[in-house]
């Protein structure tokens, strides 16, 4: 990996669940039932890139039923802590001499806004990767980010599920990073992956309607990798929903929390030139940095978020 950005793994990486990959504690019947439900959900997603509002509501309801069936419950919302300005002062200057500095992130985003049309057919990956590359440049010199892009969603048999997430981001020592670059099979990820953060591209026109299916996928990642906590983001490149999931001790069920939206605020001048409002790109990049570094850990005192419990 260069000092300026993460290593990119081969794009044919996929998360594959074999019958031996999940602990027997969770039960074969429950495992297969969950696989079949998620396969159905992903099949619907594959039919159209962006679903309209009526379809979005139907899909949301279906994903919610899957969550209920497999004991995955919403336990409260996240809120940004009050010291955001102090945190930004400490993080925005990180990596300022690297290619993906804060200044260059803004320039890259402006370039995208001015040259890439945003339509239903436009992939948000250029925007997503800009933020992930910025987060990688903020790491200390003894850490490396391995960014593993995933091919398009394609459901398969009841024992193998490919394309579960769109990106997996890992922060590790240089030696472990090299190991992960050479082998991204599930058994190696489980053994060598010190952190993990999962990015899922939004498929629905209303981002909040997409949260239940993102939770399903992230929960599946946790079961697959046998992690009790997983973190990830659902995004269309501009709007980011950060999701935190805690799996039950036997991996049978989970609880999740999420922060509604952190938005890349784009405005246009009178002559149509895009402008990016500060500080939101820096906020998104800084949250990504912390969440990738702590992807398998519970929320701590140094986190950007805190819980707002349901009354």
TrEMBL record:
Q: Which domain of life is it from?
A: Eukaryota
Query: Which residue ranges have biased composition labelled Polar residues?
Result: 11-20
Annotated region described as Disordered, given as residue ranges: 1-31
Protein name as catalogued: Fungal-type protein kinase domain-containing protein
Q: Which organism is it from?
A: Rickenella mellea
From which lineage does this chain's organism come? Answer: Eukaryota, Fungi, Dikarya, Basidiomycota, Agaricomycotina
């Amino acid at each position: 990996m260069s000092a300026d950005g993460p290593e990119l793994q081969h794009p044919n990486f996929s998360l594959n669940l074999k019958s031996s990959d999940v602990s027997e504690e969770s039960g074969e019947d429950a495992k297969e039932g969950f696989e079949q439900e998620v396969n159905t959900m992903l099949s619907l997603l594959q039919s159209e890139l962006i679903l309209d509002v009526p379809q979005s509501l139907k899909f949301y309801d279906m994903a919610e039923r899957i969550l209920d069936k497999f004991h995955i419950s919403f336990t409260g919302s996240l809120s940004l802590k009050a010291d955001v300005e102090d945190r930004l002062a400490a993080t925005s200057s990180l990596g300022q001499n690297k290619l993906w500095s804060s200044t260059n992130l803004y320039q890259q985003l402006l370039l995208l806004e001015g040259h890439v049309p945003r339509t239903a057919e436009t992939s948000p990956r250029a925007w997503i990767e800009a933020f992930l590359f910025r987060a990688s440049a903020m790491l200390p010199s003894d850490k490396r980010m391995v960014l593993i892009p995933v091919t398009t969603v394609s459901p398969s048999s009841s024992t193998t599920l490919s394309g579960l997430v769109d990106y997996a981001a890992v922060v590790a020592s240089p030696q472990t990073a090299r190991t992960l670059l050479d082998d991204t099979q599930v058994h190696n990820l489980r053994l060598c992956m010190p952190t993990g953060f999962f990015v899922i591209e939004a498929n629905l026109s209303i981002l909040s309607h997409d949260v239940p299916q993102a939770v399903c996928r992230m929960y599946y990642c946790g079961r697959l990798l046998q992690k009790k906590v997983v973190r990830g983001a659902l995004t269309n490149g501009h709007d980011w929903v950060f999701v935190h999931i805690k799996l039950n001790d036997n991996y049978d069920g989970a609880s999740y929390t999420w922060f509604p939206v952190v938005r890349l605020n784009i405005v246009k001048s009178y002559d149509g030139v895009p402008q990016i409002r500060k500080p939101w790109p820096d906020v998104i990049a800084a949250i990504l940095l912390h969440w990738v570094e702590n992807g398998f850990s519970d929320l701590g005192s140094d986190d950007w978020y805190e819980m707002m419990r349901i009354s």
